[in-house]
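Quick illustration, no need to memorize.
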Amino acid sequence: MTRHTTRRALGLGAFLATGALALTACGSGFDEPAETNGGGGDGLTVLIGSSGDAETQAVEAAVDAWSQESGTEVEVQVANDLPQQLSQGFAAGSPPDLFYLAPEQIAGYAENGSLAAYGDDLANKDDFYPSLVENFTLDGEFYCAPKDFSTLALVINTALWQEAGLTEQDYPTTWEELAAVAQQLTTDDRVGLVFSAEYQRLGVFLAQAGGGLVVDGEPVADSAENVEALEYVKTHLNDGSFAFAADVGAGWGGEAFGNQSAAMAIEGNWITGGLANDFPDVEYTVVPLPEGPAGPGTLQFTNCWGLAADSANQEQALDLVEFLTSTDQQLAFSEAFGPMPSIQSAADAWTEANPDLSAFLDGAEYAQFPPNQAGAADVITDFNAQLESLRTADPAEILSSVQANLEAIAE
């Protein structure tokens, strides 16, 4: 049996944020820790942050199926502010048994002993994409099962592409080609390429240049490769062919793309749901992001199924996680609310069901993930604030500041 005790449909913007750094915080009006039976009792409590009714109902249906099969009662709670409610649950000594957990939260909870590192105990541990396992590994310990994931790709407005005289042969595969088609698509009414003013989008250029923020645990934000990447973006922000979503009056890239104030966008596969709901008449094509000087590059976003170290129900919880991350169940989740399965055995079936979206899954082979060290979320928040002024700022100075902040949390 399942029931959910707290609900708010977060909307698409919050959905994409659940996989990105430092974007989940919002006012909740939540005054008391969610009721849980974590740490005791015969049943399980599961706390999730939902993108809306489709996700909530899909999780509840899956948990109900497992509950009926196992005989273990499960209560599903839907958070209206997941980080806050999870923190309150741990502080009160009554955390849920299982919960959605973002990569940047792992280090803090692991350091104070709140998390069980159960990844190596999973029967399907070798089925997860290696980059996702790495995302949830800290000090050599695989903490928790990735529940699903998303990557970034290039989304193209089909009608505007054709209107500009472009064909499939013109899909950009290099930075030079991206700049050229963005310029060709730019008019007085729209910009060629749009993305949000944040590392969670511009980070793809760092990766394509051969850079990133942290490599093998070492901060590398101020590398020459990263400077080259931001200089490239700055150049085309200033020539008017690239734009931040806010600069064209949109809250995020998907909105700018949907209202056709941009002909292309760098976004994740969550954009498909946003366009279907809000801009159903906009036809689009999804292609891999162009390669940079160092080759292909994208970012991935994910959450895992965290398990409380003090849970008295760890054996049942582990069995439930294996059920929720099974091939059939992850494909069902994907069909219900859009994320890509975190296991390799589901790849062929997912691609067959979503042939037009294969570029998102292909990115898993080379995707980078945002830093997951304790304090990294605050560093990214500061980085994003500086990126808003990239058009007039010195990229080297911005990255030097980020480097100093990363080195501070690495000490």
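The radius of gyration is 21 Å.
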